[in-house]
Every structure is written in C-alpha cells, then in structure tokens.
Amino acid sequence: MDNQLLWPLHGFYCVSIFTIPLYLMVLVCLLKLRCYSKTYVTTFYTILLQHCIADIIIMVNYIATWGLRTVPGIKDYYFKYQTFYIPAWTYNSVYYTLYIRCTGIVFLSINRFLVISAPYNRLTAIVQECSTWKIIAVYWIVPTLISIVVLKDAEIKYDSLDIMELVVSRGIITRNTLMALITVAITCLICVASYVIMWITLRKHSAGITKSVQRELLLAVQVFSLLCAFFIMFLYYLLQNYFSQTQNAGPVYTMRALYPIANGTLSYINPFCILLLNRDFSRQFMRTLKCAGVRVSEVKVSTATPLPIVVRGSIQ
Length: 316
What we know:
Blueprint: H1 7-33, H2 43-67, H3 74-80, H4 86-117, H5 122-128, H6 132-146, H7 148-151, E1 157-158, E2 166-167, H8 170-204, H9 211-245, H10 249-277, H11 279-289, E3 310-311, E4 314-315
Antiparallel strand pairs: 1-2, 3-4
C-alpha cells in the first residue's frame, strides 16, 4: 500500500488507543447499571448495549484484518493461509459490519419514534415489553441475513506478500458498493423520517412535555447525533459507487484507503454521544471511575411506556 495513503489507518490507530478503553468502560458501566435499575434493562438500552458491543468488535476486527495484514510475520501467516477465507473476510467484513450498524441505528431510531410519537400504540407496547433475548436475536440476525450475498464471496485474494493489497473483481466491488449505498440511504431515510415525525409530534403537544418525556427526548438526541455520522458514510459510499461504475481502479483503492476515517467516525462517536448527552448515565459513569457504588436513588426507573404528552388539551 502506498505510504501516502497510510495516514488514515495510522490516525485510526491513534484514536483507538484511548477510545477503545473508554468504550469498554462505558460498556462495563452499562452492564453494571442493568443490575440496579429497570431503566437500563429497557428495549432502548438493550439495543444500545448490542450496538456498543458491535462497535468494539468492529474496531478490533478492523485492526486485526486491515491493520495487521501489513505487519511482518503476521502478514506472512495471512498470505500463506489466504485460501482459508482470510482476505475474503477482510473485505467482506467491511460490509457485514456496516449492515450491523445500519440495522442498529434503525432499531434505535424506530424505538425513539414509537416511545415519543406513539406511546399508546399496541406495537410500542410489544416492542417495550419484548424479552432481552429476542431483542438480541433480532439485532444480530437481521444484518446477517442482509449480508449473505456479501459473505458468500470467497474468491478474494492478496496480490503479493510485499503489498498485501486485496484483489477483488470489479463485479463484486460494483455490486457491494451499490448495495451498501442503497442500505445506508434507506437507513438515513427511515431515521430522518422518524425524527421529523417526532419533531412534529413534540411541536403539537409541547405543553404536555414532562421531565420523563424530556429524558426520553434526550435519548433521541443521543441517537440523532449517532445518525449524523451515517451521512459521512453515505457520502463515502456515494463516491465509492461512482468510482466503481467508472471502471477507474485508482480512486477505488484511494477510497478504500480512506475507509478508516468513515469507519472511525461511526465507531468512536457513540461513547462520546452517550457520555455528553445522557446525563443520568454520565453521573453513574463518573461514580464508577471513582470506584464508588451505584447510587440507586439517582437511577431513573422507566416503565414499559413513557410518561404522557398532551392529547386534545389534557394530559393522558
């Protein structure tokens, strides 16, 4: 790989040094709080927890596949056993992990939409009362099913031991980038539509917004901040799809080298969104850093459905 194109990967490494430990601490704190409060066992936090786990796995996987393939000794192992799906997983995992994130952000946004805009809908009650194992199963099964088309490609190889660049047919690149562009576009469309409807609902019933609803709204803002990162990914795949369609191999490899920037944005923004926009969790997180116990009185207890919004001039 051209040394001039290694700076995005090196930047990804530098940010990973302090972000992965921070993310792990956020994850541990979330798991700890689930033992003390019903708030953190709700559907939203169960999905968020899976999203955090996915992000950490994705970061470690990217470092192990894309980063270590250039390290002497390790790259010899990768090259020698490349027939065992190693280069194929290196390439295919980019799309598989993208679809995991897409479904995750869609699930989080739909959950916020249902809780805020349709709190008394039957579907909302079903989602809020869904058991943890079902939520986890849906979170991981849906993107896996979407990724079957991608994961079946096993003919991807390394070009040489010295360069270790992936050799992928133009047909696979064109199909995968177009599929990724469509998936990211649909993700953004669903999420934006959910937030537009939420905004309209809040405008209509602004007089009935209670503190409990405000907390639910802050969680929606947290998810919206995460959604903003997807617009960077949308732009990335828009350009990648254009270059793959023009039969120009150079820009395709350049965009592949720039992938750590887009991937890092999606990976690293979530823990900061959680800490900066979730005040209840941030207080508990700081107590955890100080090795203090969880203050149960500060942990807000959430019910199956959120507190109400004004409907027809009264609070229901």
